[in-house]
Structure formats: C-alpha cells, structure tokens
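Input record (one chain):
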Amino acid sequence: MNIEKLYKERDLQVVRDYEPHNEELQQLRIMLHGPTGSGKSSFIDSVDTVLQGRMTSQALADAVSQESFTKEYRTFKIQKGGPETVYPFVFTDIMGLEKETNRGVSVEDLKLAMRGHIKDGYNFNPLSKISEDDNWYNKTPTLKDRVHVLVCVISATTANLLSAESVAKMREVRLAARDLGIPQLAILTKIDEACSEVKADIRNVYMSKYLKKQMEVFSDSLGIPVKCIFPVKNYHSEIDPDDDTDTLILSALKHIINLGEDFVNGR
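The corresponding structure, as predicted from the sequence alone:
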C-alpha cells in the first residue's frame, strides 16, 4: 500500500467516525464562499464522491456561464450508508461573490447567513439583502442554524488575478466571521489546471513552486495563513475516483471538521 493510500484510509476513518460532542446540534454547518467559478459546488460533489466511493453530482455546477450558477441558499447532506443515514456535517452552498456591486451574493446576506438568519431555499438578490419581514428570514436562529466553519474557495488559476473589489468583499466577510468567532480556512482548487507539474502527477502538489507562490499571494491578500490553505483537485471529468485526489480532499475535510468541532464546543 502506497503512502497516499495510507493517508487516505487514515483520514477517511477520522471522517467516518466523527460525531459532534455538543448535544445542541446533530450536524456541523460548513459554509463555502468565494468568487464565481472558483469550484464551491464542485468541492461539495468531490467530497460526496470520496465518501461514496463513486462519482456523484449532487451540487450542480456550470462549465459555461461566467455568472454564478448557484442562486439560492442551499444545504447539502452527504449520505452515509443507507438512504436514511447522513454524515454529521452539512455544506451550505451560496451564490458566488462578484466584483460588481449589482452582481453576485450580497456581503450583507453572507453576514446574516453566518448568524443563522437565512433559511434554506432563499433566492439571493444581488441588489438588496434579505429583509427581516421576508418569509425566508429566520428571526430566532439557534446554534444549529449558525455557520460553524467558513471556507473560502479560490481557484489556483485566478488567485493572483483577483480584483481589488473581490478581495475587499472576501476580506469583509472574513472580518465578520472573525467577530463572530467562526473559524476559517481556504481551499485552493483547480491546481491541475494552474500547474503543469501537478497536472502530470498530482503528488507534486507540495513541491510546486508555482502553487506555493499562489498560496502566498492569496494569504497576503486575504490574511488567511498559508497553513490554513489547502490545495485540492475537484473531480470534474473523471469517471472513477483516484486515491491521490481523494487524499487531498480528505485532508481538507478533516481540518474543516476539527475546526468546527472546536468552535461548537467553545474551544
């Protein structure tokens, strides 16, 4: 058994064994945010693929449109074993951030979502935030409604090309999460498209000087430490899962779960 297979099996077991210790909630809520086209929906599908051991496509992504394909606030559960059993964590997918003020998800909506004020199914309006008298507004959120981990998803192909407006929006979201005590990390996607060495062999990921530079640039822009930025390759054209790809996805997922567990237990 190669080392990647060993790492995969170790982290897979950690994820399968996880149960929240806080009796107030049954599932961690993980919210993904980032620019349009960064791979948020694809990351959810990739996690689902790894845990199911087969290709899945639960969170629809679009390979053509330059606008956000995700329009509503939607929670995704990952099946564990039988149809009635799910993993004790959920992913919240949202509309992408865009540099224009009249496009993409509103930063104010993101702040409200982190506090648990937005119900599942709400359709984002780029021109205005949700109002308190809206049927999709949750006036009395509990711990289970709140976001427990904030994950910024960014493409390695565009990390050094982000507009000042996009960076400012992501920075504002990051500071709002900080004020709420919500732990944060980042996912660097499309590493195979950004680096020919990694495209040739994904095991070159941590030897790639180009990816290292991209992570440093992103860290400097947003303030997320490099050690909290996880490079991954989402599944998009493959017909079968791959151990090396799974290993990177599981490593990121394990750290996400650990941060969320610490948060809900007040650590």
